[in-house]
Design brief:
Distance between the termini: 164 Å
Structural class: alpha/beta
CATH topology of the largest domain: Rossmann fold
Number of helices: 10
Shape: rod-shaped
Oligomer: single chain
Number of domains: 3
Strand content: 15-25%
Length: 309
């Protein structure tokens, strides 16, 4: 007589087979996301991974989902790393996702484009919101690393171009997990000293090194700043979200220093030219008035009583 099994026994047996299969423990799977659900209360991601013919359920738990640089979306082609397991209660075979990368695009690039699109809809890149820079700033606040090359470049340029201005350093971390909060705090500190303009940025680096300036917290802090902000992140080819939100983007920290203040040497030449022009105008006016006075004297001499007598 055949043994009669319970549903639990069947599901338990199938789960054991999958759990013991080494090939299904660490695998990469390519597919398209559908039925994506971001379970906000738990932080878990639930979705279906499909190709042209079949589909399979997938879940990404909070501790792995929180590490993603981008937000998965329906229709997105991805490569998943994880394991295949059986959800014993419902008898459902599913992928337990440990990591996910966009297929064909880097995760950081995808995150950049998603944030750029969202902030654009919120109006953070609106040209009408951008503030003009002061012509002759008296106080210039700089938000950057206190030991970085960017600060030294800014000091060198400003000391040569605009020694009349006061430079105020608001130090911040510009790289790493804690950098966004540090930059936001430094921006708020900079506002308290009432500068005429703020330079925020750092020197060059990889996309990962510059990622703090693609953080939404930094973008919204720059947008909310009452003081004009110049963003100077990386090299000329590097473009960050901070650059797009700021009142002015400078290709490098050195360029930011040149853009935020006039060249005192040029001003001196302009003042000298104005003084020379005034001198010429005054000399010409004096000669004209002398000629008038001489004419008056000749007319008076002809009309004098002595000549008449």
């Amino acid at each position: 007589m055949n043994q009669i099994l319970t549903v639990s026994q069947i599901n338990g047996y199938l789960k054991g087979l999958l759990d013991e299969d080494v090939q299904l423990k660490s695998i990469y799977i390519r597919g398209e996301i559908s039925n994506f659900t971001n379970h906000l209360r738990t932080g878990h991601f639930y979705f279906t991974l499909k190709d042209a013919r079949t589909s399979i359920k997938a879940v990404m738990f909070k501790w792995n989902a929180s590490r993603l640089r981008f937000l998965p979306q329906n229709g997105m082609s991805v490569i998943i790393f994880g394991s295949v397991q059986l959800f014993e209660r419902d008898g459902i075979c599913q992928i337990i996702c440990a990591d996910m990368q966009p297929d064909g695009l880097g995760a950081l690039y995808m995150a950049f484009e998603q944030l750029k699109e969202r902030l654009g809809r919120d109006g953070l890149f609106d040209p009408g919101h951008k503030k003009p820079l002061p012509q002759y700033p008296q106080k210039i606040a700089v938000v950057t690393a206190k030991t970085g090359a960017a600060l030294q470049d800014i000091i060198h340029i400003l000391s040569r171009r605009w020694p009349l201005g006061e430079l105020i350093l608001c130090p911040a971390l510009v790289q790493g997990e804690n950098a966004p909060d540090s930059i936001v705090s430094a921006l708020r500190l900079a506002e308290t000293v009432s500068p005429d303009v703020i330079i925020v940025g750092r020197g060059g680096g990889s996309l990962e090194d510059l990622w703090a300036f693609n953080d939404e917290r930094v973008a919204r802090a720059v947008y909310a700043c009452r003081i004009p902000v110049i963003s100077a992140v990386g090299h000329e080819t590097d473009v960050t979200i901070c650059d797009l939100v700021a009142d002015l983007r400078a290709p490098t920290p050195s360029a930011a220093a040149e853009l935020c203040a006039p060249d005192i040497g040029v001003l001196r030449r302009e003042v000298a030219e104005i003084a020379e022009s005034l001198d010429r105008c005054l000399s010409d006016r004096i000669r004209l008035e002398e000629a008038k006075v001489n004419g008056y004297q000749r007319r008076l001499s002809v009309s004098s009583p002595g000549v008449q007598l």
